[in-house]
Amino acid sequence: xxxxxxxxxxxxxxxxxxxxxxxxxxxxxxxxxxxxxxxxxxxxxxxxxxxxxxxxxxxxxxxxxxxxxxxxxxxxxxxxxxxxxxxxxxxxxxxxxxxxxxxxxxxxxxxxxxxxxxxxxxxxxxxxxxxxxxxxxxxxxxxxxxxxxxxxxxxxxxxxxxxxxxxxxxxxxxxxxxxxxxxxxxxxxxxxxxxxxxxxxxxxxxxxxxxxxxxxxxxxxxxxxxxxxxxxxxxxxxxxxxxxxxxxxxxxxxxxxxxxxxxxxxxxxxxxxxxxxxxxxxxxxxxxxxxxxxxxxxxxxxxxxxxxxxxxxxxxxxxxxxxxxxxxxxxxxxxxxxxxxxxxxxxxxxxxxxxxxxxxxxxxxxxxxxxxxxxxxxx
Length: 379
Hints:
Strand order of the largest sheet: 2-1-5-4-3
Shape: flat
Largest sheet: 5 strands, antiparallel
CATH class of the largest domain: Mainly Alpha
Low-confidence stretches: 123-127
CATH superfamily of the largest domain: Tetratricopeptide repeat domain
Distance between the termini: 58 Å
Number of strands: 11
CATH topology of the largest domain: Serine Threonine Protein Phosphatase 5, Tetratricopeptide repeat
Number of domains: 3
Radius of gyration: 25 Å
Strand content: 5-15%
Structural class: alpha+beta
Order of helices and strands: HEEHHHHEEEEEHEHHEEEHHHHHHH
CATH architecture of the largest domain: Alpha Horseshoe
């Protein structure tokens, strides 16, 4: 098998070998360069979870027992297909994928089943990428080609709020009257309408700087008195991605892979939810609290995994980060005390308890769990 892999090691295509369990067993240098992951990080991982390939219509393609695998198992030839796949940076990469069957008819689950060959699509074909919005911190927007939106008009609060508003509708068209009333509630309807038209023009030019006529925008559509984000352009929003990846990490049986997923999630937290749009209609207290809870849950979950692999210092840093987000985070205090007690750090444990007691005195409405009270008594 090493002889087979040597044939693809220096291939200009990214070469990825998959066994019958759809686990990655080989990942050549081009794959490392193209997708950003070293082979040491991907071997043994399910290919479909890592790549998360989507078709031109943004429909999921990579999955357990995907169409390619089914064709190989029934000894059919697998056609070339254009997909977008995930990279380590979080960006989507459009590729053309071909497949070489290796082990038709064999039953050994560890047997190499197929080799995928990926090559990036030319820029002219890179029209089905993902438009990315980052809500976890100041708003960031990333065009289909991966470039960040950043221009003079992008500094306008209402231009950014308009984009978030349309994205939050999930492609459902919104009347111009409703948009104007929601985004400019303090203005008379006629003036709000004018402000909306100006903001739409500026937003379209932000998204497509070389657009000759704003009404020809492929991002922001207008029909029958309604505006909508183009449903043919896949939308990726970080807070939704965090929730999905968090579920994936919680179900990941390999502890090191789960740690990698949680660490990838943490990199998406750049600050408080839409911190620069807090005075607009698109900011929500519920979403703010939801984002903070996702952040805390990720920190605590990752801390627990570091405890399991006997890295208590890393776990402590994560629990302390959770407390920086919420000083009354009951679970993080429990974990810090549990970590302090077994290592004869009674002073450290008492310091945590004293800090907690001070917090309780100043926040009389806090109710501690029975388990936490027992921990305090133990110290």
